[in-house]
From TrEMBL:
Residues 38-71 are annotated as: Disordered. This is Serine aminopeptidase S33 domain-containing protein. Residues 166-370 form the Serine aminopeptidase S33 domain. Belongs to the diacylglycerol acyltransferase family. It comes from the Eukaryota. The keyword Acyltransferase applies. InterPro entries: AB_hydrolase_fold, DAGAT, Hydrolase_4. Pfam families: DAGAT, Hydrolase_4.
Amino acid sequence: MAATGPSLFVASPLVTSTAGNSVRNRCLSSFRAMAVSEDQKSSPATVATRSTEKGRWLEEKNRKGRKEEEELTSNIYSNPQEITDENGNTLREYFQDCKDLMIQSKAGPPRWFTPLECGSHAPDSPLLLFLPGIDGMGLGLFKHHHKLGKIFEIWCLHIPVTDKTSFTDLVKLVERTVRSEYKRSPDRPIYIVGESLGACIALDIAARNPDVDLVLILANPATSFSRSQLQSLIPVLQVMPDQLSLYFSYMLNLASGDPLRMAFENVAKGLMPHQIVGELTQDLVAMSSYLCVLADMLPRETLLWKLQMLKSASSSANSHLHAVKNQALLLCSGKDQLFPSEEEAQRLYRMLPKCEKRVFEESGHFLFLEDGFDLVTAIKGASFYRQGKYLDYVSDYIPPTPYEFKKIYESNRWVLAVTSPVMLSTLEDGKVVRGLAGIPSEGPVLYVGYHMLLGFELAPLVLQFLMERNILLRGIAHPMMFTRAKEGRMLDLGSFDTYRLMGAVPVSGSNFYKLLSSKSHALLYPGGVREALHRKGEEYKLFWPEQSEFVRMASRFGAKIVPFGVVGEDDVGELVFDYNDQMQIPSLRTFIKELTEEVVHLRIDASGEVSNQDVYLPGVVPKLPGRFYYYFGKPIETKGKKS
């Protein structure tokens, strides 16, 4: 939805911060009214006297039937194909808002503002400071304001076009804000999202304030400026007449993306060719019409000043990298034409001790403006969202949005097509029915089963529970999906972002306790890695420890235990090259040893085959078509059986 100038921002939105104190924008009455939703709508109480056990049973049955009906009607995940895309604002709207902001701000020092689109947030939401790139507008998160505003308190830094504040003074300005907010809420983390130049500011802030709980999210940092082609623009701009603006067209092309790639993406979405031509023509005409806006954002003198600032910013940030000990998430673009971002991300990843990186192969420099990128999804997938000093995988978890679920569903559609899963559950009277009607609605519930090869049964299981019953299964997963004992050949942690997005938690007694105490639906595989990486002839063999403590924990919270099993692995694939085969080959034996040393070891005190936690990649030959059958037994009550 297009936004007009004055309505985009809160009243007096540009709060000057020049006296050394961070000034909070308190114009709450100017925010859009947010709808308040209730988990349950109250209805007039019905008082009835039941004279027989049969009457009470019928009342309970009707109540459950109404509850299940409500679940079906309110399930936002039930039809992934019908979920609409989370269409962000367009590039045309971005330039229009930049134009409006330049009119409003005119001159003056850098200042903070909160876009009205961010809406209201929870009182305990962490603060997010956005530090812009070379444009200085502060609208780089334009497409993400609405989603970010639900989980963060957002302040964006705006640097007026004519402002000549030095890099050092920008760092001091942001530092004053950080210190002020840290003093006000010392237990709340402060997120700094820095793009290009802003990433350099963020690194300097982190180095100068080791006592502050900062979480850095750095997009294509300008720390690689010395290896950037932008450096060659400085001498050119020094002699270029003001009337010449060829470089604007070049930079606009970088911002708008590759039209050919956009066309292919639209074909993949099912658009007809004439629609593609129409949309691309409209976009290109709109972008060309805002060429003058870009020229106003970065006139020759301003661009020259910003490039010289980038040079000093890069030098300063690199000299302070050794002092940065904060949690950091690097977001780098594979097709960045301004900086060697992918190469730089790898360098920073090696230098920063608490760093993770995510690579977006098809993206350009202006990552936040690209249609296919979602910052909130990236933060959630990397398990970087927390409200306190330490990450709590249970209380800090945010369920997937309908559109996030749709994307996960579409990426796993081939698994559903290949396995054609059938779910069978058991009702309270012992009757087995097709579907998940026998699954308890209210938690805590513990689902206990065995792994198929490579955990191939997981995707259909988790997706079907959400679609049919609106139940999110919180998988208790191996730590290899969350951390590494050391770096090496294991899959990048980004490969497991989907698992974390869908609620997986690393296996531990405390996480198990928190899941059950919060009445979650927890998914447990006692056989773990040994079961998921089984050998030939072990398709349905259990590798459970002799003493399983999950029953004791479940009974402590009165959780229902639902045992389940899955068959069909031998219908869809044949294991032809297993662990025993690979251990006979010296090079593969060494490879398996290296992989195993990279992951956190579990069950080091266990005995028997379950203690064999070696990690290997099995060789499988597909056999299609096939089908998975899931059978869920009758829920076992533990309430009142606490030992």
